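Final report, results section. Input specification for complex C-07:
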Amino acid sequence: NAGVMQNPRHLVRRRGQEARLRCSPMKGHSHVYWYRQLPEEGLKFMVYLQKENIIDESGMPKERFSAEFPKEGPSILRIQQVVRGDSAAYFCASSPPARSYTGELFFGEGSRLTVL
Amino acid sequence: AQSVAQPEDQVNVAEGNPLTVKCTYSVSGNPYLFWYVQYPNRGLQFLLKYITGDNLVKGSYGFEAEFNKSQTSFHLKKPSALVSDSALYFCAVRGDTGGFKTIFGAGTRLFVKA
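Structure output:
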């Protein structure tokens, strides 16, 4: 039973390029969460999605960042025109299909973005 | 608004000694509380959770945590630390009203010295 799969594990981009990070949730999970971990900092909530719907994007920067979770395929976190401050580890987590779910989140191994 | 505070950036303990990693929280409604551990260059692994019931919850690798409603705390404990427990520990909270996102603390780095 595969866990949460994130790719790429490592991504290097130059300033101004686009970064696309993908997340496939655990089998049977339809809710996905994205978090950002800056060096020596904790996990910052970015966005919470279910298939074809954004539930909470209160942690997303207003510009350059977007997320989607289509009916088919993985969830994608897209960062346009990357800047050095975007360098971080981006973690995806998934949970079963219930907003009232009270259990733990299941995390992927993360995608580490480096902006040169 | 939900928030989690981990007041210690780092905790140092000798192997075999008891360890405590502190966590306090603020949330609307009833709290759902979690501890996760992160090893270098890895994702977060779930350790234990409090949803309801007994205030003392037991989790993986001999860890336990005590929910204290009056102090809004959920400290992580282990009676006897191992060198292999050295890692980054995160406390997290989710409320049962409003949104259902999980908020994490800043993390506490645990060093266990042989």
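Chain B has a mean pLDDT of 92. Chain B has no helices and twelve strands. This concludes the modelling results for the funded period.
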